[in-house]
Amino acid sequence: MTPQKLWRKPLDAEKIGLPKAEIHVITDLCKGCDFCIEFCPKKVLEKSNKLNKRGAYPPKVVDEDNCALCSFCTAICPEFAVFTIEKERREGSESGEKQ
Amino acid sequence: MTLLKRSNSASDLYVCKVLYRRDRLYSRRTKKPLTIVLGREARMESPLIPQEIREKTKYCFECGVCTASCPMAELLSPQYNPRSVLQQILEDPDRALKSEGLWLCAWCYKCYKRCPQGLKLPEILHTAKQEVAKRGFDASFEKAVSIIEKHIPFPILCWYTCFHPERTGIPNDKIVAMKEKLAGRPKKGKKPTNRQGRAAIIGSGPAGLTAACQLAERGYPVTLFEALPKIGGMLRKSMPAYRLPRKELDNEIQLLKDLGVEIRTSTEVGKDIKFDELWRCGYKVVFVAVGAHTSLKLGIEGEDLDGVIDALNFLWTAKESAKVDITERVGVIGGGNVAIDAARTALRHKAKEVVILYRRSLNEMTANPWEIGEAEKEGVRIEFQVAPKKILKKDGKVAGLECFRVELGELDETGRKRPVPIEGSEFSLQLGTVIVAIGERTETSFLPNEVERDRSNRILVNPVTMETSMTRVFAGGDAVTGPASVIEAILAGKRAAGFMEKYLNETGEREDAHLAS
Amino acid sequence: MPILPADPEITEEARIGVYVCHCGLNIAGTVNCEEVAEFAATLPHVVVAKDHRYTCSDQGQELIKNDIKNSDLNRIVVASCSPRLHELTFRKTCEEAGLNKYLFEMANIREHCSWVHHHDKEAATEKAKDLVRAAVAKATLLESEIETVVPINRKALVIGGGVAGIQAALDLADTGYKVFVVEKQPSIGGRMAQIDKTFPTMDCSICILAPKMSDVGHHPNIELYTNSEVQEVKGYIGNFTVKVLKKPRYITDECSACNDCSEACPIAAPNEFDVGLATRKAIFTPFAQAVPSTYIIDRDLCLNEEGIMTCDKCIEACERQAIDFDMKPETIELQVGTIVVATGAEVSDPTRFTNYGYTRYPNVITSLEFERLINAGGPSSGNLVRPSDMKIPKTVAFIQCVGSRSKKGNPYCSNVCCMNTVKDSLLIKEHWPDVKIYVFYLDMRAFGKGFEDLYRRAKEAGVMFIRGLPAEVVEDPKTHNLWVIGENTLQKEIYKINLDLVILSVGIEPCKDSDAIQRLFTLSRTSDGFFMEAHPKLKPVDAPTGGVFLAGCAESPKDIKDSVTQASAAAARAGILMAQGKVTVEAITPKPILENCRICGMCAQVCPYNAIVVDKEAKSVQVIDAACAGCGTCGAECQFEALHMRHFTDNQIRSQIDALTEEDADTKIIAFCCNWCAYAGADFAGVSRIQYPPNVRIIRTMCSGRVSSTFIEHAFARGAGAVLVAGCHPGDCHYIDANYQTQRRVERLWKKMARLDVDTDRLQLLWASAAEGERIATKIREMQSVLAKLKPEGVEKATKAFEGR
Fold first, then answer.
1. N or C: which end of chain B has fewer CB atoms below 10 A?
2. Pairing state between β C722-727 and C763-767
3. Are residues B151 and B221 in the same domain?
4. Per-residue pLDDT, B8
5. Burial of C621: CB neighbours in 10 Å, binned 0-12, 13-18, 19+
6. Domains in chain C and their CATH numbers?
7. Which residue of C lies nearest to B454 if distances are taken between CA atoms?
8. Nearby residues of B179 by Cβ (< 8 Å), 6 or more positions away
9. Residues of C with CB under 8 A from a CB of A
10. Which candidate from C310, C349, C379 shows the least CB-CB separation from A11?
């Protein structure tokens, strides 16, 4: 296989339908443990600076398009405060690459 | 044994029968012995070419890249073909010495940059020219001058900035005589214009001047816009006087005035007159030749100190007034033609020691290789693979420059090796003045978005017609190619003028996109 | 090991036969062979001295055999070509006549004399005489030796799974040997799997390759390790120990290649197989016909880190539970007898030719990208589309020699690009007959069988061949069309042609990690970066190292037919070794002389193969013959003359030095050249007819490490003008690192010379490879200036300083 830097946008980039995600954060359930932010492999969540009712800073979504729907955040949150839903798989969604 | 001898005219071949007598060949016609120059032997033994260049010329396989890149080849097509001149030097040196092609090289080194074998054509032709000067074949030189007179716009400008006949060894009086002949050439006067289409030229550098001249000669009303108080562009601003005397520039520009070109100086398009207004004023086509005048900044600590000068400003000041505020020890950062010019100008003023600091090696230096040699001969020191870290100060003025050494790593997008700093290699230079010459950008913010530009802000044009992505707007010169030579700008102006005519005549549709010339 | 006396008495008096070869006119044209033969007759111990036209021919060999019998000869000297060429031939001749083959010596008066001193016949003849004298002097001291026999492991290793590797593996496996194939990529197939059709037959490439790939996968004698790399190779011919790192796929053997996992995976990236023109997922199979037909996870893309499983979509999707994220890399040790290196080539990157605009303009593509586009199984389903707007182009141009035949790229011609372009243009015409095709070339090279026919077909189809490479490719920013500007050199016109698509015919470069492979096998590389064969004409598939063979583009750029041919040849050559089952180790290994030994252990320290075992308590020194490669570094290190270096003894080398410095020593350069690099390089200079001054006399040792300081000092004591020690480049030594010892010794000697006020320029050290004949010639020319400034007092001083050495 050629080791040239693969600089082109693949011709079927449009056709690859990757799942589109919707990320929901239930801010008032969050206790600020930051597990979801730390372990998200695509770094889609960031700590916000709005205090919630529990006195913690819940996460906010910064890059919803990059979400890969691995649902790790859903699995790891001890308070069930964050979860992802898959939207309809659309034709023409860009492929997401890990940074 | 027969020998095919080709005369000067390609269609006139005649076969000359030859007598073979032991180890000499005699022509039957003239009964005189023939010396036959066989291709391969001549290639190896040709005395015209110095040894180190001879080693390389073996590899020329006539790919034609040099001719395709040469601005003079296009301006003089088909009379000048550098590839065939080089081949003639290798194969038939005696005839090559008599050809006028030797004198037509404009020293822009575009061929050298593209040549797969890295042959320095200007220097090979230079050696041939020296040989000619020694033997006294001036006829070819005169013929070349008449070609220049007929086909090259602004021949005197080119005489000084491109052809450099003084480098060859032709006696000075001969050179002066030829120059006078050029200066005294019959000039085209103002042609009675009955044409309606008006052309606007923005920028009065060599590209703009050429386009204006060409269109005016064909009878179109032309307006030349120039932001500075005097026209000439880089030729006026930063070309040092020792390269182009001001008097000659003014004389050539007089030509323009005689042709009836409307010259509007101190008028900056975008500020004093908006770009869209040009259409409203009735101009049918616009030629953008604003050049590249915005110097790039280093971005290091101490750049705003007293004693750090931008190279273009320095050259301008040096031209305008004899006094320039530099110290005895000057450092020039950069490796292009502007850096070399700045260094040589500094030497001609107060500076005693000038050092050029370039972050890559000699192979990657964009300056004209001949000029680099000249600078070194004049005493300029060049340090390679050095990059500036910060400017040291003392009492609020520049005291020195802290630099570090770099090594060349992988290739970057421009195809040149990327300089990679070497840890712990910092050293200081004691300098009183730092001249920054790391590159110039073109300023095109006055153009509408429809005119597409690339990442470095250069205008993108169709290489055949010089038209931009906006119809009726043409562009050429440094604004398109980035900093380049005078002859390339002149070529751009001439090319564009030819195609601008179509709009000015309103003859209808544009030429077919699939054009082969 | 038997102990031999320190100075073995020659129990019989030497009776030497000298044969000076004419080699047709190769030698006789420059050297006066009769004169040399007459001279040889005057040397001590020479009983027979003849000259012959072609000594290596049957008649020549018969002559020698007869003389051995009739004249009772017990030493033979042949003055002819390089021993690297015909030493084996003549050794066999001696054996056939009943003489031990180690009683034979050669003087190289062709590559080192007649071919390089064309212009000075007298000096060449004198040099030939000197060389014969040295050979006779050494022959007088030669002893008969018995060779150790080493068994050969009947297993072979093939590195690289391209078409060459596949062919070699199949040939060896069909012969009956066990073969291990190690391939870096997850699937075998190499470049041939990527291209569409082959020239000149226009066969579908993968269709003819896939059955072979499948055969390799199923063959009972072949063990396939894909996604694996060779880490280490130790040993010698017939007995290699290879460590292979098997990188984990994270997929078990349960995988049935159903593709469910790939569909479920949320991460996509450009596909290497399609040169970035199509996407693949983080879990993928390289291409549809991959062998082994299984998947692999790219951990750099996969969301799961070490220990943290964030995404389990593939595990969920896989019905056969074939995914195992805990797989670890495995190191496998293989014992093999022969190795075939078929690592292949890569396409060169045209980004550095900025005037062509590759990576700046989307519609400038390389020939490999073209192959993928036009391939029916490729990213655009076989439609040649412009990457910018996915439309079929109406005008297309091919630019030849991109990256080849140029100083800025590679200086060599890449062999396949011309025919590749002709084939590609015919492919386009086949599908879209109305497309206008231009080919900008310098020379069209259609040298093979059926190639000229294909070229003619292309011309008939209407492809325009224009001689003159483009200087520039410029893009029209609106349409992304391209302008190509160049000179039509045959018409002497500048062309500016507007095109929809430009294809750069890029050249072939050796695989980027060929450096690592080279270190592993101590192979030599030519200046182009490809591996060097033992002899360009007679041994085109043998590597200089015994037991290692080369096949395919690893050796030089070539097309598929030549790769397959070379692969079969390599397999046959490897088969010869393995069929015999044994190989004899040359009897040039050392024998310890315990009486002189002080058990200091220095010899063991410098041995690159750990072939000497010194036991300080038991006061014993043992040499493991099978591991010893015969470099001689131990002998040079030993200060006490406790190692008898068979066939290259101290006395023999000294006698050569004495013979060469007999006359006019101060005008001569005595050169010690190592057999594998410097001597081969001087041979190469001879083959290339590179001329240099005739005052150099070369003494051959197996390795530059054999050259002890005492030899150099002895040469100076004899009044030699200058001494040159030449060996392999550091890191490239045929005996791993023995040349570092050479460097150490020479540097020490320089210091000593400086102390004794002897001009240090008179001793020079040169590293040259077997392909660098010009480098060696240049060095000899440079050293003439050292001799020019040498005064008689200087020679006197050195003679006195080193007296007695």
1. N
2. parallel
3. no
4. 41
5. buried
6. 1-147 (3.40.50), 151-247+329-344+511-581 (3.50.50.60), 248-328 (3.30.70), 349-509 (3.50.50.60), 590-645 (3.30.70.20), 657-805 (3.40.50)
7. C477
8. B156, B159
9. 185, 266-279, 286, 300-301, 303-305, 308, 310-313, 346-347, 349, 359, 362, 368, 379-380, 385, 387, 390, 512
10. C379
Structure tokens at C127: 């040099």
Give the pLDDT score at B25: 54
Based on the fold, state whether residues B363 and B415 are members of the same structural domain: yes
Encode C101-133: b = buried (16+ Cβ within 10 Å), e = exposed.
bbbbbbbbbbbbbbbbbeeeeebbbbbbbbbbb
**Average model confidence (pLDDT) across chain C:** 90
The residues of A whose Cβ lies within 8 A of any Cβ of C are: 1-4, 6-8, 10-13, 16, 18-19, 39-42, 68-72, 95-98
Q: Is residue C211 reached through a cis peptide bond, with omega within 30 degrees of 0 on the bond before it?
A: no
pLDDT of amino acid B512:
38
Residues C340, C543 contacting (CB under 8 angstroms): no
Architecture per CATH, A21-86: 2-Layer Sandwich (3.30)
Q: Are residues B300 and B430 in the same domain?
A: yes
Mean pLDDT of C155-183: 96
Indicate yes or no: CB of C276 within 8 angstroms of CB of A98: no
Subunit contact A41:C349, Cβ cutoff 8 A: no
Write down the pLDDT at residue C549: 95
Query: Quick one: pLDDT at residue C70?
Result: 92
pLDDT exceeds 90 at position C212: yes
Higher pLDDT, A36 or C11: A36
N residues, chain A: 99
CATH at B356: 3.50.50.60
Q: Is the pLDDT of residue C515 over 80?
A: no
Instruction: Select from B183, B214, B246 the last residue of a domain.
Output: B183
Q: Which of B108-122, B245-259, C763-777 has the lowest mean pLDDT?
A: B245-259
Nearest-angstrom CA–CA distance, B49 and C487: 25
- pLDDT tens profile C709-753: 999 999 999 999 999 999 988 867 777 778 888 999 999 999 999
Residues B268, B392: one domain? no
Provide DSSP, C584-639. EEPS--EEE-TTT-----HHHHH-TT--EEEETTTTEEEE-TTT-----HHHHH-S
**Across the interface, which of B81, B415, B462 has its CB nearest the CB of C351?**
B415
| Contact (Cβ atoms closer than 8 angstroms) between residue C423 and residue C451 | no
Tell me which of B56, B60, B65 to substitute to probe the interface with C (most C C-beta atoms closer than 10 Å). B65
Predicted confidence (pLDDT) per residue in B377-390, tens digit? 999 999 999 999 88
Report the domain count for chain B. Answer: 4
Average pLDDT, chain B: 81
- pLDDT tens string C27-55: 999 999 999 999 999 999 999 999 999 99
Q: Is there a contact between B64 and C486 if contact means CB atoms under 8 Å apart?
A: yes
- Bond into C83 cis (ω within 30): no
Confidence label for C522 from pLDDT (cuts 50, 70 and 90): low
Mutation target for A interface from C273, C301, C306, C310: give the one with most A CBs within 10 A: C310
Q: Residue C184 corresponds to which tokens in the numbers above?
A: 């870096």
Q: How far is C474 from chain B (nearest CA, A)?
A: 7
Given this model, what pLDDT does residue B46 score?
Answer: 53
Which residues does chain B have within 8 Å of residue C496's beta carbon, measured at their own beta carbons? 463-464, 515-517
Which of C360, C478, C486 is closest, CB to CB, to B65?
A: C486
Whether C303 and A13 lie within 8 Å, measured CB to CB = no
Of the candidates C407, C479, C486, which has its C-beta nearest B68's C-beta? C486
Contact C112, C683 (CB under 8 A): yes
* Residue spans per domain, chain A: 21-86
**Which domain does B489 fall in, by range?**
198-293+442-505
Distance from CA of B28 to the nearest CA of C (A): 33
